[in-house]
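Entry: Fructoselysine 6-kinase
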Amino acid sequence: MSRKAPRIIAFGDNVVDCYRDQKRMFPGGNCVNHAVFARRFGAEAAYAGAVCDDAAGRAIRDACLAEGVDVSLLRFMPGQTAYCVIANENGERVFVGANLGVSIIAPSQGDLDRMSRADAVHTGRSSHIDAWLPRFASLTRVSYDFATIRDEAHIARLAPHCFLAGFSGGGLSREEALALGEAALRNGAQWAITTRGEDGAMLVGRGGIYEVPAAPVVPVDTLGAGDTFIARTLVGLLRDEAPDVLLSEAATAAAETCLSPGAFGHGAAMDIDLTTMLTLDEIYRNTRPVAGPADMKEIVLTR
Ligand SMILES: Nc1ncnc2c1ncn2[C@@H]1O[C@H](COP(=O)(O)OP(=O)(O)O)[C@@H](O)[C@H]1O
Ligand SMILES: [Mg+2]
C-alpha cells in the first residue's frame, strides 16, 4: 500500500516518565510515543488507552491533542495514571521502576472497529495484551515492540501475527541482531527491525537485510529513541518507501529524539504520587496479562 498518510492506531500502554531529580514529568509510554512519532512522520495516528483525570492523565491527553493525535478512543478511569521513573546516566536513559496504574486494558469493540479501518495497529510487550494479537492481526497489520525479549520460543508465539516486529538490541552484536530478525521472519513476521543504540539498526525482510549506522550525536536523553525508530520504520513500510531511505530517515529522527529530554517533549512539573512504585522485575513477574477474546467469552458463559 502506498497511501500518502497511512492510518495507524496505537493500542495499549501509556505513562508519564518521571525524572525525580529534576521534578519533571513527560508524557510517554511505548504506544503514546509511537502514535505521536507516527503523526510527526505524516501518518494519521490515533492513541487508544486509559488514563485517569489527574495531572498526569491530562498531560498525556493534552500532549496527544497538541501533536494532532486522535484521542477519541482514550478513556478516563478512576485510580492513578501509570508512571515510570527514569534516571539519566550520561545521556542514556535508565528505567528505575514504574506503576502501570490503570493503563493495562482490553480493547473495546470501538477499538477493534477502528483497527479494521486502519492500515496498522501498533502495540508491544509493555501493553500486556498478547492474547489479543491474533484478533488484531485478523483486522489489520500488526506492529509489535518486543523490547528486550530475545527468547525464540517467545518470539515464535507472537511473530506469526506481526507485519513488523521491533527489537531493542542495544549491546547486541551485528550477528546477534541478525539472528533476532531472522528468528522473527522464520516464525512469520514480514519485517523485523532491531535497533542497536549507537551501533545503528538492522531491518530484515523477505527481500534482504538493510542496515544503517546511528547518526553521530552526543545524547542528552535517549528515552524514546527506539520508539522513534520503529514508528518511522512502520510509516515508511506502509508508504512502500525503499528500506534504505526509511532507515536513513529513522536514524536521523531517532538521533533528534536523543537530543531532548523526555520521549517527545511536553514536559511539566512532576505532579504524581511515586510511593506505589514497583521495580520493572516485579512488574513483569506480577502483571496479569489482559485476557484474550476467547477467555473473555468463557468468563461470560460461566457467570
Ligand atoms: N547514543 C546514541 N547516539 C546516536 N544515536 C542513537 C543513540 N542511542 C540511540 N540512537 C538511535 O536511536 C535508535 C534506537 O536506539 P536504541 O537504543 O536501540 O533503542 P531503545 O530506545 O529501545 O533503547 C538507534 O538505532 C539509533 O539510531
Ligand atoms: Mg537505548
